[in-house]
Design goal:
Elements: H1 2-34, H2 36-50, H3 60-70, H4 96-105, H5 132-144, H6 146-150, H7 153-159, H8 180-192, H9 208-214, E1 222-223, E2 226-227, H10 234-247, H11 251-260, H12 266-275, H13 280-321, H14 325-348, H15 354-357, H16 366-374, H17 378-381, E3 388-393, E4 397-402, H18 404-411, H19 417-427, H20 431-442, H21 444-450
Antiparallel strand pairs: 1-2, 3-4
Helix pairs in contact: 1-13, 1-14, 1-20, 3-4, 10-11, 10-13, 11-12, 12-13, 13-19
Length: 454
Amino acid sequence: MISYYADLAIGLILAFLLLSLLVSGINEGIVKLLGIRSKFLWAYLRDTLDGAETADGTSRLDRILDALKRLGRKARTPLTQAASPEEGRSRLPASVLGVFARLPFGRDPRPAFSRQPPPAQSPPLAAAADSVAADSVAAESVAADPVAAGSGAAEQATASAEVPAGASADPAHPAGQADPEEIAVLTVEPAAVGAAGGVLPPDQGKSMAELLHERLQEIDHAKRGRTSIADIPPARFAVAVMEIAIEHGGVEALMRDLDALKSPFSQPLKAVWDRASHDLEAFGRGVEDWFDGEMERLSLLYRRYVRWVLVGLGLIVTLAFGMDSLEYGKTLLRDNAYRGAVTAFGQSGPQALEPLREQCEPGQDPYVCVTDVLSTPAFVKIFTHAPVSVTMDAAEGPAWAWHGGDWWQRLTSPGHWPGFLITLIALLFGAPFWWDILRRLSGLRARTSGSTPS
């Protein structure tokens, strides 16, 4: 009797393990195909390093998702966390619909992929395109020089190419005849000393997130022309920030320009810098600890969204296979009892054959019936309730059969609903949980831990 219940437990655990692996595989395939994990990370990095993006909210995708979100639901959870035109909106989604609809099919927050190694000298820091900081830099440029802002791009470069106060230029020829060294000074320095506090427009440099990607692109590979990096080690992030700060003229200069960009990264950077007492080694460790904590928080947020997707996938898998856990448990016990009866038949002789005839079709050879049942254990039968089933024949090979009517009747039968619910709840524990339970129950862990290398 004890062996019967042990077989029942192992059979249920193994079924839940395989179905959980199927759910996890489908979810991982969707995430990989749409690049959701990488986009989720870079949406957070864009928000933290570059600041909020402009709150236009005029894309067709946003309007469709807002309409779908309002159908049948009174609570109006925004797809993004902010919607003020002055403050912008977050690139990081604030709902499951945003994670699996707006994030994969909307504006891609990931930097462009580059096959080049990290440059020896990075471009200057600039405002990110389509960000609130970029609009602020453009507005301040228009206020400072409306004539240059109203002209074309080529005329603007020529009109703004004036030497600032305190600089020197060669008066022997006009700006149009300047050599390359003078052109570099005339076109970069005016923007660097503008009202934006050393921050350039998007077309004259790279944003903080793009500068970070430059330091990581040696481990990158392309995915539709964008980066596929979905995990950044905290130590590498801290080193990249240190490298950017050194090229930018120091940590304080970087913090000043990040503050001009309205970057949320400037505040934790200042806190770490003050706590480190302006010591670069302690500052690097502080940035690493801060980023490690942020990644833990981001992982919790991501798992909270993915959990609801796993619920949906688990429900689909449960209904697709018609997995009634209660019925399956009864089948396991009945299968064990049937095998016990066959064993008794082998020991008692032909008189034990009569009880077995009741489970065989009329006119079927009992010996053939016993062979078929023993070759089709209860574990295999859990996959026979799907709309499409396959049987293996020694002579003709695999044969496919359609059982749509029986499958639908099974789903609409209230007697199976408690078993479906138990299966769905079991799948939410995940494959690692059921694998650990199976190892504990079968003793695999004890044998593995007790082995010694030869």
